[in-house]
Every structure is written in structure tokens, then in C-alpha cells.
Amino acid sequence: MASDDHQRAVVLLSGGLDSSTALAWARREMGWECHTVAFDYGQRHRIELEAAANVARFMGVTDHRVIAVDLASIGGSALTENIDVPKDRHDGVAIPVTYVPARNLIFLSLAAALAETIHASKIVIGANVVDYSGYPDCRPEFLDAFAQVATLGTRSGSEGVPFEVVAPLLTLDKSEIIALGTRLGLDYALTRSCYDPRPDGMPCGHCDSCLFRREGFAKLSLQDPLPYAE
User: Which of 81, 120, 133, 203 is packed most tightly, with the most Cβ within 10 A?
Assistant: First the structure.
């Protein structure tokens, strides 16, 4: 595998369906040398950190890092505060309460720092149409703007190596994402998507993330390998 800057990528890996598929694409479709990073940010669904490590291992990643960022001290989200996670709804809320203030801005900044350190020019994120319909920090214009800012504000950029934020799933819905990952041999049993899992880690089956995931598998007439607490 080529190891020059243009074939090396930092992949934001939460352990969820989208980021895991993005990693599979970067590794198996593009053949890039991938370095993955997960974030322990005080999220209620910390089981995703275990999932991220398992997915990285499954995909043959030898450099998987976990960075601690205390976003719970800022709050403002059902994922980091004692706020109920909405269940069984598709009501078109513009920005749902599961939005974590500036999360991707912070995560991408740290990923850019890592990329600069390991001489990578690409940052891969699993943002997609389902995400950016509700989360402003997943929208294409934000990702493009961040790449410009990171290029302007780093030594790598000033030395002529611009950053590229790569979002391979951007125009795909959940069923298309699952179809891509399945074709690439990703084991979705290793992933975790639930915003409000039980103490034993079993997904609730009713939060937005669970609903989108279940609908994606159902649209393909595939069985989701995860059990759900009904």
C-alpha cells in the first residue's frame, strides 16, 4: 500500500454504521493507509468506543486512537446531558436535541492535528444526507469550509499540502450505505448506532439512530445483525 501523504488518511471512527462504512470504503475501495480516531466526549452511548476499536481491528487498522474531550461539561445535548432521547418519531425537527454543539468542528480540528502530525492529507468522515438534514456540522458547505480553514491554519497547508475532507457517503441514504458496506465485507454486527442503549449495551430500537438503521436494513430485505430491546 502506498504510504505517501496523498494515500494516507485519518478516519473519524465512532463505531457506528456510517463511520465504519466510510472506513471500509477508504481501506478496501481506495486502498488508503488509514489511521482511525474515536472520541470519548462524555457521551451516554460510550459503548460505541468499544465498537470503534473492534471495527478498526476488523479492518486491519494498526493505529487506532481514542482522544478524550469533555463535551459533557458544555452540555446542550441529549447525548451529553440528562435529557430524554426522543423515541419513535420522524417529525422533521430542524436540529434535534441529539445535536452536540460544535462536535464535528471540534473532532475535525483534532483529526486535522493528527493528520498534520502523521503527514496525512485526507480526513474521512461518515456524514451523509440523513445526518445533514438535521445536523449543521454534517452539511457539505461546512465540510468544504473546514478543509479550507484547516489548510490556511496549519503548517501542512502553508507548505503546499492542502487538507481534503472526504465524505464518501454524503449523497447516500442508510440503505445505500449498508449496501456499500456489505459489498466491501464490513461486519455490521461489530457496529453500534443507538443513542440510548441499555446498561448492557443492547440498542433501544426506538431512537432516531436505531430507526434509521433498522429502516435501512429493511429496505434491502436484510436482517440487522444486532438484537434490539423492544
Answer: 120
